[in-house]
Every structure is written in C-alpha cells, then in structure tokens.
Amino acid sequence: MNGKSVQIYAGRAREFAWKLTPRRVRPLLRGALTLARSEPAVSTGVAWGLIMLARLFLGGAVGMADNFDGHRLMCQLGVAPHPIPASQPLWAYLTPRYDSYTWYGESCSAGGSGQPYLSTEYFPLLLAKLLTGFFGLPGALDLRMLGIIFALCVAAAIGWTVSELPGPMWARVLIASGIGLAVADSAVAPYFISPFSEPAAVLGMLLLIPALLRLLGRERVRVRDLVLVAAVAAWTIGAKTQMASLLLVVVPVLLLRPSRRLIRHRGVSRARRIPGRIAVRIPASPLPHIPTLQLRRRLRRRLRPGLPLSLRLWLPRRLPGNRIARREAERARRFLRWAAVRTPALVICVLLVGGTVEFQRHQPRWLNEITRYDDVFTSILGHSPNVQGDLRALHLPADFAPAAGSSIVADNSAATLPDYPRFVHRATFGDILAFYATHPLRLFGVADRGLAGVAATRPSYLGNYQASSDAAPYEQDCRLCIASAAFTLTEPFRWVVIPGLWIGAAIGGVRLARRRSAPARARGVGVLLASVGVATIAQFWTVMLTEGDSDLEKHMLPVVLGTMLLGPLVFAAFAAADQIRPASAPDAEHDVPLPRGTADEEAADAPADPSIALEPA
Amino acid sequence: MPRYCRALVAALGVLSLSGCGSLNLEHVGMGVGSYKTTWTVGSCHRLDQFVETDPMYASDTSPPVPCGEPHQSETYADVAITGAVARQGERPSPLWLESSLRGACSAARMADFLGAEPPDITRDIIVLQIIPSVPEWRAGVRRVRCDALIGPRTMETLATISRSLRDIVRSPAARFRQCRLGYTEVPCDGLHTAELVYPAVKFSAVELTRDGNYLLGKVKNVCRQEAAAYVGAPLDRRPDLILEPELPGDYPHRDSTTGYCWVAQTNGRPVTGSVRRTGTRGAA
C-alpha cells in the first residue's frame, strides 16, 4: 500500500466518521481539527499528554510499589514513606504518600554505604515535592504529582518528535504516536509513579530521539544541537549507572558529521548555490581579521583553506619527498582536518565521557561490591556445572563453593565466610570479563536468562495499585499491555525474535544511513534506528554483565523500551526511505547532498573551487 | 573574544563543575548532621524508620534524645574494633563488618544492663551494633556502639518506649516477657494463658531417644524449681498457677530438642501481666 492509497482510505474513513458525528458537536470538532492541522506537533503532544494522564489516573493511580530501592533517592528530599497498616504487605501496593522526616548522616545513603546515590531523577522528585506543597496535598511528597510531571514531559517529547521527524505529517504523527504507545504501555508507564530512578532514564531515552533527529537533520551539525544531544545524553546517563552504555552510540553519532564553522569570517552573509548540486558558504576571506594587509596576504598564501587558523599553522608547508612519508603525512593531514571540522563535537565528547567517568567514580563502593557479588556468586557460580573449576578460574578460594547461587544477604552468603575480604580485594569486573572471555559458551546461558527477563517485561513482585483500590495484593496493571502481551507471546521464540529485532534494526538503519542519494534528514533516521538497535544490545549486555540476574526484570526496563521503540522507528525509516528521489532538489537550509567519492567532511568543508572561496563574495 | 574562545572557556567551566576539578560530592545527597556518633552508655536514640535499624545501615549519627521521650534504642556498651578489619583504611562494606564484628556486643552484657537474672527471659529486645561513620573511620575511630533495640519491629510497624531500658527486666515489664495465647507466642502485656520461664531444659542425643515419661519427668523436675524462683513462691502455694511443661518435639516446635517451662493459669482463662516475683499474691 503506497502513500496515496493510504490517503484515499484515510479520507473515506474521515468522511464516514464525520457523518456519524452529531451536528451539535461538529463545530467544536471542526475547531479542534483546524487547530490540530495548524499545529500538528503541539496537538499530538497534548493528545498524548492527556492519554498518559488518563492511563495513569483514570480508575485510580497506578505505579510501582517500593522495594526499598526508593529510599536512597527519597531520603535526599527529607521524606519517608507514610506508615501503612501492619496487615498490609509492603510490596503489595503502591504507597504514593511520603511524610517529612529528618534523615541523619548515613541513614540517607546508598544502601548504608556512607556514599550518596546520585541520579537525575532527584530533580523531577524535587519538583513533585514542590507541587505537592503547592497544591496542598496531604504529606510532604505525593508520587502522583511525579506522574503528572512525567506525563507532561512525555507529551513534550512526543510533540518535539513530530516536529523533528522527516516525511509527511500523517506519518510523523503516526510514528510519534507509536512511541507514545510504547511509553504508555504497562511495562513502562507505572514507573512514572514510583520512587525509582528509571523514569528519568525513560524520559532521557524519549528526548534523545528528537534531539538526534534535530542534530542529524543537517549535513553540517550546529553546535547548539550538539550541546542539546550531549545534555540529554548526560541526563539519561545520570539517571542510572547502567545507562553509561549509551556512550557507545552517542559519541560516534556526535562525531558523525562535521560542524558548522565556529569562526564567522568577515563578509560572510549567505549561502550561495554552486552549479553541480553543491551548495557552499562562500566567505569573503578564510582568514580572521588581520590588520596588516601584507601579513594577511602572506598567511593566505601559506595556509590551506578549510582548517581553523590554529591547526593550519601546524601543517607542513610541503609534503616530504618519500612516498610512504608523504602518505603518512597525508593521512595525518586528513585526520587533522577530520578532527578540525569536529572540534566542537570532540570537546563535547570529552566533556561527556569525562562526566560519565566521574559519575561512575562517585558511585558507592558498596553497590559496586553487591554488583560484583551478584555477577560471581549468582550469575557465574549459581549456574555453574563445575563450581570449583570456576572458582579457580576466578582466582578465588575453594571454600566459597557453598555460597554458589546465593545473594549477598542470604544465610549462606560468602560475606559470612572468613575469606570474604579476599573476594572484595581480588574480584574485579576485569576478572569477570576475563572469565567470560575464556568461557565464551557460558555467555549463551547469560543471554538466555537476559532474554527471559526482557520477555517478562516487568517485575511481578511489586504491586501496581494502591491499597485503597479493589485490586488484589501484587496485582499488575494491564490498562495498556500490548507490548507486555507481545513480549510474553515471543517468550518461547525469544532467541529469534528479540535479537532479530535489534540486529535487523541496526542493519536496516546502517543501510539507510549509507544511502548517499538520501537527504540528510532521511539518513538521520537511519542513524537513529541503528543507534537505538545498537544501544539496546549494549544496554542488554551491560545489565547482564554488571547487575547479573539480580532484579533482572526491573533493570531490563531500558532494554524493553528500546525494543518497543524499534517498531515506530522502523516505520520512520520506511517513511524516510520513501522520501528519497534520485533527482530531488536539495533544501538549502537542511539538505546539502555531497559529491560522491569524497569524504563528507572534506567535501562539505572545502569549497568546490578554492579561488572562489578566497575571493570576497 | 572570538566565539570559539568563549565556547572553550564555557567548556572548561562545565568541566571543572562536572567534577573533574576534584569537586567534593561526599555529603551531597546524604543525610543531615555532623556525622559524629554518640558513644555515651545510657544514651537513648530515636530510630523511627525501619531502614535505620537495618544491618546495612550500620552507623547512627542522629543526636541522642532524653530517655523520657519516645525512642527505640539505648546504648549499653562501647567496645573496640580489633583485628584485620580494624586495619582497613576505608570502612569495609556493611556485610563484611557485620561478619567480622559478630558477637562484639555480647547479649550477656545486654542482659546485665537490662537487669535480667537467670529465670528471666526477654522478648522484643535485641542487640544493635552501631559502627563509626565513614568520616569517623577515616579519622581512625574503631569502636562499636552496642545498643539495646526494642521491638516488635517490622517493615510496617515499630515500637517505642519512653523510659530507660536500664534494669527494666527487674520491674514487671510485661511487654518484654514471653507468653503465649494458646499456641501463639505473644508479649505478656497482652492477653495470654501461659508465661515462659528460663532457662530451657537441654537434652542429650541419647536422652532424646528415651520414652516420653523420662522426658516429662526431667522437664518437670527442672521447671518446678525454676518456676518457683521466677514466681517467688512454690507453685504449691499458688493454686491459680500450674506448671505446663513443653517437651522436645511438642507442637508447635516439632523440631525442637529442648524442653520449656511454661507457667499457666489453672482455670485456663486468658490474663494480662506477668507473674514474675508476684509471690503468693493472687493466690486464691
């Protein structure tokens, strides 16, 4: 079915719906439709905001019960859970109300470690606390206010996505609505009314979509778009330590395309179209303003165009006579040019990576110890056919064998053994990775457990409803459980369907991104699709190799959401591919097709004819 | 200043603020106060939340409260940390510490503090070990604060007390004594039909193979003396009370290899309060 036939069918359906609408309602509906047509992004966002609010609150609020993980964040806001009846099981129901409480010292720290638990989720929670007071709700913080905040944020993200997506408006609205449907699903939405850090990560993932589309909508990226993507990525990584895997895709994407010039040359005023489909910005002079005319001419002769002044001074005047040396020099020159046109992106990447490393460094040692424990004793030894052999491979004492399969707080935990300090000092993540490198077949077991966790979509031990509702203890919300049901159905075929989706999306995205004939925005959708596919795979393995089997369904939330997002993004890729026309005229502002056979950055950076570039416009 | 210079300055600013400039984030996102533990024996502490007494949250730097105000724990001793764990420069993880410091605060010492004597048995008072905070550990503090923590304490509810726990077992203090209503163990300040007297009667493996009459005889012999000491008068002089021995393996403790001495109401009616040191009071 092509776009035209879809439009015909949509028109017929519209006519039919219009006939069914009562006459009194028609003017109102006409007004709403006019508004929706004039501001499709805003109206789609508003619609999804209302859907999210209805989904979260109609028929009683749904959220996630706290399994004590919430304490480390909520205590930072000076609140404690409102007491519940003694007969009520703690994790059976959502308890949205929190009262003021003064937490002293390390009673407010990550698991009593004496170190803080840092997450960007703190800020929405702080806002929720302020709004709770503003609206005069009982208690110091009501998590239902957090639900409202996130519903509005989701609305903004979806509206923004509509405005950044390429293609016809109906397709953009449909794709953004697909994303909205994924977020409103029962596997994701209940987290918005919870004291966990996951909602900040979910919001960050949603905002990254339009931010990346905006960045990749141009051949030459703008610094402000780079900063925007980096800020959203920093927010997402700051939500949960496991989200650091996002760097694997964000850094390459930031460095994918050259930046616009930072130095505004005197006399530069407009872009000029050059015959032969190459549009370049023609500067009056490639050099900054230099007072002495003689010096300026000398520099102009000496320096090559297309590079910032600071880098041009480092280039050799003539290439060496030796061919190899000349090739190396040429390679170095290319690299310098590549780096020079990406200076802002490089600076931002250094900041982002440095900030992530620093953030990881500030994570509590105690949580790190728990993670390593789970990796070794639960994931490796708990599923080991030869516990003693594995202990030897991990360079750990044999008396740890009885602790195989235990959690750190179990009665048979290795922490109760006299040799435990040896584990704390010796077992590192490097050792765990080295173990898997020498026992690669064990990774299949790890992957299988992980895929089962993804198929489960959410933890079953945490109730979604309030105790005041009629719901049974631990009852799971299913107001919109399309994805949850789909994942459950794929569970027997999890080895084919789930990795197939990830890999297929990554390959499809790369193929679209490599189509030179496609405009920048269409290729941007390909890059986004490939990025989400790769980021989901990276996230899956990050969770499995760090958190292990512990609380797997909860930790897999970004993987579940990433997989769900692939559906609308694949559709977006088809819509973008449909836009590719061999002889399409490029858009001067967004799409500047580059000549074949040259690297993007070099072609885009260097003018077609240097003599033109050196002369004033 | 050219644009890129401004961008560079801004970037460096962000870099320094983002933590690369050794910004101290140690107490950001943590609790308030001085991070100094109160080590005074006899000081009372308010630990209103379940997590505050979780073994993972092993330090307590909240200011002490007067023992006449509601509180949950009271310090009865302060002991030094020794051995390999004390040589760690950074405070080890809570579980490692818990494992290394197991038994550092003796229950016997707590019993002395509470004023418990041999026939006494207490319930809902447990030992809570408090370790130095991270800054204190770095400063070289190696002590454990031993607190008596009252119960019942669950994830949903917690108990408080508004008096000192010192010598509390010497008073009737029925809420800290073990009773039962039918087969359900309850504190003695609630309705109950029998009260437990300690110590328990131990049996060897050989003895456990012998017939029920032998077991009953041994428990009765021991319990008669213990119950008399506990009540403050022989049970012959308390017709309202009767000895109710519990043999090894009796319901509800099927796996038990120990005998217990219960002093029950003769008429079987539920009562409240403890019979400890009541002497011949209440005798018909």
What do these coordinates show?
The complex is a heterodimer of chains A (617) and B (284). Chain A starts with a helix and ends with a helix. Chain A is mainly α and 617 residues long. Chain A is globular. In chain A, the strands form two sheets. A three-stranded antiparallel sheet of chain A has the order 1-2-3. A two-stranded antiparallel ribbon of chain A has the order 4-5. The longest helix of chain A is centred in the C-terminal third of the chain and has 28 residues, at 520-547. Chain A has 26 helices and five strands. The model of chain A is unreliable at 265-292 and 583-617 (pLDDT under 50). Chain A has a domain at 1-38. Chain B is elongated, with a radius of gyration of 26 Å. In chain B, strands 6-5-7-9-8 form a five-stranded antiparallel sheet, covered by helices on one side. A four-stranded antiparallel sheet of chain B has the order 1-2-4-3. Chain B has helices at residues 3-20, 94-100, 107-114, 134-138, 205-208, 212-231, and strands at residues 44-45, 73-80, 125-130, 143-150, 178-181, 184-187, 194-202, 241-246, 258-265. In chain B, strand 5 (178-181) and strand 6 (184-187) form a beta hairpin. The chains are: A mainly alpha (617), B alpha+beta (284). At the A-B interface, helix 14, helix 15 and helix 17 of A face helix 1 and helix 2 of B.
Defining traits:
heterodimer; A: 617 residues; mainly alpha; three-stranded antiparallel beta sheet; two-stranded antiparallel ribbon; 3% strand; disordered C terminus; B: 284 residues; alpha+beta; five-stranded antiparallel beta sheet; four-stranded antiparallel beta sheet; 6 helices
Spatial strand sequence of the major β-sheet of chain B? 6-5-7-9-8
Structural class of chain A: mainly alpha
How large is the radius of gyration of chain B? 26 Å
Distance between the termini of chain B: 102 Å
**Uncertain regions of chain A: pLDDT < 50 for 5+ in a row?**
265-292, 583-617
Describe the sheet with the most strands of chain A.
3 strands, antiparallel
The residue fraction in helices of chain B comes out at: 10-25%
Strand content of chain A: under 5%
- Which strand order spans the largest sheet of chain A, edge to edge or round the barrel? 1-2-3
Q: Choose one word for the global shape of chain B.
A: elongated
State mean pLDDT of chain A (0 to 100 scale).
Answer: 85
List low-pLDDT spans of chain B. 14-23
Measured by residues with Cβ under 8 Å of the partner chain's Cβ, the largest interface is: A-B, 58 and 52 residues
Assembly type of the chains comes to heterodimer
